[in-house]
Amino acid sequence: MIVKLSVFWCLGPMGGLLLAFGCSGAGDQSPTPDLLGENTETGPGNVASVAAKPPGLTIAPFDAEEARVHQESWAEHLGVEVEIENPIGMQLRLIPPGEFMMGSPESEEGRRDDESPQHRVRITRPFYLGVYPVTQSEWASVMGNNPSAFSSDGRNSDRVSGLSPDDFPVEMVSWEDAQEFIGELNERSEETGWVHRLPTEAEWEHACRAGTTTRYYFGVDEAELGEYAWFRVNSGSRPHPVGQKRPNAWGLYDMHGNVWELCFDWYSADYYANSPLEDPTGPEGGSNRVFRGGGWSSTARACRSAFRHGLPPGHRFDFLGLRVAFSSVD
Question: What are phi and psi of 73, to 5 degrees?
Fold first, then answer.
């Protein structure tokens, strides 16, 4: 069943605004608890969805089975599905709120200075994140064009000759292009109430790690990376269709490799020294935007969960793409 969600604001117990999901399937609509776990009243024609107490925050480290249980518990609490489809058919997975150590320890092989200091971060609200990076066909369906270099008529078309790149991740998109895409996507989704956005850098790392504290979401041995990622060693100098490698514990594919993924935040090499504990959204300004995850041309080092980099918001590259989130940063 395809579950359609809408976003709405409700008045919290202290007079503040709280984000809530509206969920509908098979033609009926039911309110759900807001993301902080407050109870909702049942009105005429509505199905009760009340949870007196939300599940606890996920506290890393935890294993894949615990990750699944956390994900399902939060979905049940909110009255939504773990995996949903947006109005153009993109799949997204529920990411539970939780705490993790962001950055890398000094002992991690291949670490960089901008991953210091390793610090505790708390994501206080659940959100949805794309199961895959945005594909060329998804971009074209919204924007009416395909900027990708690895498309049938792109500048690197010779490297995908005889292939159908519709399910390749879109690339050659800048942070500014990503904002335009998201704006168009939200306009198309207006009737259903969907509000898409880029994930914050902290949300991205929380979602990538899925409870792990190691170099990669599967462990520390880069010899195993080829099972989970397209990168310099196995990519054949090009991206590949999304979803061909093994996912992480929350069901997200290509978080390591294939294309780098843009995040909402401005980039600062020393931001971690001043990052707040709860829901960091990056510096107030800057000249570069964060991108994460590594790509088809990246070394194993650059595909690590903690690796971070920045580019000017107008720059485009054939290794740079995006993954969309659904919920509010507020």
Answer: -65, -40
Residue 256: which domain range? 56-326
Residue 190 located in a structural domain: yes
Number of domains present in the structure of the chain? 1
| Cβ 231 vs Cβ 254: under 8 Å | no
Q: Does 194 map to a domain?
A: yes
Q: Give 90-122 pLDDT, tens digit per residue.
A: 999 999 999 999 999 999 999 999 999 999 999
Q: Is the pLDDT of residue 206 over 70?
A: yes
What whole-number distance in Å separates Cα of residue 54 and Cα of residue 258?
36
- Total-model pTM: 0.86
